[in-house]
Amino acid sequence: MKNEQIRKRLAEVIAEENIKENELLRNHLYTKLGGKADFFVTPTSYEEVQNVVKLANELEFPFTLLGNGSNLIVKDGGIRGVVLHLKNFNEVKSNGDQIVAQSGAAIIDVSRRALAEKLTGLEFACGIPGTVGGALFMNAGAYGGEIKDVLDYCYVVDRQGELVKRTAADLELDYRHSNISEKGDIVLEATFSLKPGQYEEIKAVMDDLTYKRESKQPLEYPSCGSVFKRPPGYFAGKLIQDSNLQGTNIGGAEVSTKHAGFIVNKDDATATDYISLIEHVQKTVKDKFDVELEREVRIIGEDLE
């Protein structure tokens, strides 16, 4: 199907001003990497998300969901079809001992709302740069806490475009994993169940974790966060450091000198630079220590022709 036909049908289910063609994705992603999307769509209601999914099924065009890209690399050739971006879904509200947050809200903001409501359990998330949707997608965690510890349930749009409630157990949450990708679900909102706490105690924990993050992580440059999962019995950053890889660069991408587990976009890197450096790190660590580093970051999209 031709792009002009797709645009015409999209305009029937979503406002024209929320449809952009040939949008440069690096402008919307935390990593500042990535080529263009054929169509970049920013729905403003759950019904619009449902309608886009149903239209994609009807017309058989590909669609991709993007968060803020804090754990994602989009290749330089961009993404074909329709890219859904849920930046308009950013409401966070409280309900007793629960926090209800839409998928486009920053998980950091959810932790701050929990603090304001004197609720404990989300302190670990105070430094995670992703969205709520992304946090559920990968069961985000830090400093001993994970999303699975606090998630009660969420609402998703499934592959058929239906609005479905899923419990935390339904998502099969494990270390940096959920079944959201396999099911093809689009998270719209999540409800977190927390416990009453003392404001000053919660704040003290968050302040301490924020200090640890800011002092150890290279936040001054765009990055995808921690690149690799923790290999059993090892720490990825230590293996990379002991391989003398810190400061190694390919193009504008560099293994951080501040934290070896991070690769930073130091000087207008391309996605190809970034991916090539990831592969170089994996090969070097494998050759030196016979340990396979598994990527935590996702890579999607197409190479430049």
UniProtKB/TrEMBL annotation:
Its EC number is 1.3.1.98. Belongs to the MurB family. This is UDP-N-acetylenolpyruvoylglucosamine reductase. It catalyses: UDP-N-acetyl-alpha-D-muramate + NADP(+) = UDP-N-acetyl-3-O-(1-carboxyvinyl)-alpha-D-glucosamine + NADPH + H(+). It is found in: Cytoplasm. It comes from the Bacteria. The keyword Cell wall biogenesis/degradation applies. Signal peptide: none annotated. GO terms for molecular function: UDP-N-acetylmuramate dehydrogenase activity. The keyword Kinase does not apply. The gene is murB. Its main location: cytoplasm.
